[in-house]
Automatic annotation (TrEMBL):
Protein name: EFHD1 protein
InterPro entries: EF-hand-dom_pair, EF_hand_dom, EFHD1/2
Ranges where the EF-hand domain occurs: 88-123, 124-148
Gene Ontology MF terms in the entry: calcium ion binding; calcium ion sensor activity
GO cellular component, one term: mitochondrial inner membrane
Annotated keywords: Calcium, Metal-binding, Repeat
UniProt cross-references to Pfam families, sorted A to Z: EF-hand_7
Alphabetized PANTHER family for the sequence: EF-HAND DOMAIN-CONTAINING PROTEIN D, EF-HAND DOMAIN-CONTAINING PROTEIN D1
Keyword Metal-binding set for record: yes
Amino acid sequence: MASEELAQKLQRRLQLEESGAAAEGEAEAVRDPAAAEEVEERSCLTASAGAELSAKLCRRQDINEGAAQPRRAAVFNPYTEFKEFSRRQIKDMERMFRLYDSGRDGYIDLMELKLMMEKLGAPQTHLGLKNMIKEVDEDFDGKLSFRE
């Protein structure tokens, strides 16, 4: 879906919500059934949410559908983000991450994860490794960063 088209649909939806004109929405649904289905699907997801939460849910749905890219955190500080771990534990985890990051690119990819699991004495199947990555991969790049 083009970004202009998405922006127009969002503007139309905001106008409908502000005016509270349900009759306009029904008339528009009769003219364009595909748009009505999409608006109905989104409205059921965000029916009881506030405006801010609604916007976040719509963005998350767009990311899941591939229409938008996830935002990356500008600065990552593991000591403030993971308060449940001590500084020593975080340093140990970072050292282990660097040890298994053989490409030195800041990510552990599928082959590096395979080697890591073999060295730890728990070899996995190819599908098992992919599922492990999929469980924690927040930015959907198929690799694991230290933050993930």
